[in-house]
From TrEMBL:
Annotated active site: K25, D155
Domain GHMP kinase C-terminal: 222-298
UniProt GO BP: isopentenyl diphosphate biosynthetic process, methylerythritol 4-phosphate pathway; terpenoid biosynthetic process
Gene responsible for this protein: ispE
Source organism: Xylanimonas allomyrinae
Pfam families given in the database record: GHMP_kinases_C, GHMP_kinases_N
Residue ranges of domain GHMP kinase N-terminal in the record: 85-162
Name of this chain's protein: 4-diphosphocytidyl-2-C-methyl-D-erythritol kinase
Length: 317
């Protein structure tokens, strides 16, 4: 009997690849206590993930090839592509933890402003952890991934978790928060980022290292607004203890906040350590109007409209 001819393969099969998206965040409230001996500040923060995502693709490589990394998307040229990149560090940390070789090709696609106080780099780390865990079939329980995440940076656990959550400690001890509905956000980002340690240092100067201790009770109105899905009440309750410090380093952000208020924003704050400014809008239409006004007035280098809450680190289909 004639044997069947095997099909001719014209191109090499692409290497197995896992794709994971993780969100950026805005701090709806950020309360900062006095600096501790370890250099960190105790925080109480209410985080909300927003639908601006970083995507990390992790592809199989030959054994012994090690880690490689490319970055593309908006502002990609501002991101390091060596072993200092948080996605790279995440891959190395997971491999060490699992006792395997860190062999992977990582491709990062930016969707969150770089060095903007929105945890874009932390989202890369969260996505890389989940992607490599799947690619290498290390199958870590969620709690172990969260623990590795907190070693990579204070905001990485939240980028894994997503949605809306209250963070304490360095911001890494998380409790999910109940929310209703969808909130409309506008973000005005600057070409030039701000260094988080520099903003915390400015905070120490402004408070003479003696900031008031932080507590959960201060955000009762905010939590109520979230549960009710009331954007007006949420706008009024937005709070950021780092805002003054960020403004001391970037005085021009005061005008960006002012324009948002003049355009009817329900609330406007510096996002995290800045310099991105976040404005809460009544609707998608209103968000676009605020974005257009910022652009027309030259108050932001790039504007982004989106919604929150958004999901945490998740495989893309
Ligand atoms: O944890 P992560 O590496 O993201 O923090 C970056 C820097 O931000 C720290 O080195 C520290 O200067 C500052 N930070 C802080 N208190 C926190 C979180 C971060 O002082 N709770």
């Amino acid at each position: 009997r004639p044997r069947a001819t095997p099909p001719t393969r014209l191109t090499a099969a692409p290497p197995p690849t896992v794709r994971v998206r993780a969100p950026g965040k805005v701090n709806l409230s950020l309360r900062v206590g006095p600096v501790q001996d370890d250099g960190y500040h105790p925080l109480v923060s209410v985080f909300q993930a927003v639908a601006l995502f970083e995507e990390v693709a992790a592809s199989q490589v030959l054994p012994g090839a090690g880690v490689s990394l490319t970055v593309d998307g908006p502002q990609a040229q501002l991101v390091p592509t060596d072993s200092t990149n948080l996605a790279w560090r995440a891959a190395v940390l997971l491999a060490e933890h699992a006792g395997i070789a860190p062999d992977v090709a990582l491709r990062v696609r930016k969707g969150v402003p770089v060095a903007g106080g929105m945890a874009g780099g932390s989202a890369d780390a969260a996505a890389a952890l989940v992607a490599c865990d799947a690619l290498w079939e290390t199958g870590l329980p969620r709690t172990e991934l969260m623990e590795l995440a907190s070693r990579l940076g204070s905001d990485v656990p939240f980028c894994l978790l997503g949605h809306t959550a209250v963070g304490t400690g360095r911001g890494h001890l998380l409790t999910p928060a109940m929310t209703r509905g969808e909130f409309h956000w506008v973000f005005g980002a600057s070409e030039r980022g701000l260094s988080t340690p520099a903003v915390f240092a400015a905070f120490d100067d402004l408070t003479h290292g003696a900031a008031s201790p932080v507590g959960l009770a201060d955000d009762t109105a905010l939590m109520q607004a979230l549960r009710a899905g009331d954007p007006t009440a949420l706008g009024a309750a937005l709070h950021n203890d780092l805002q003054e410090a960020a403004l001391s380093l970037r005085p021009e952000l005061a005008r960006t906040l002012e324009i948002a208020h003049e355009t009817g924003a329900l609330g406007a704050i510096v996002s995290g350590s800045g310099p991105t400014v976040a404005a809460l809008a009544r609707s998608r239409q209103h968000a676009l109007a605020i974005a257009a006004t910022w652009t027309a007035e030259g108050a932001a280098d790039t504007v982004w409209t989106t919604t929150g809450p958004a999901h945490g680190a998740r495989h893309t289909t």
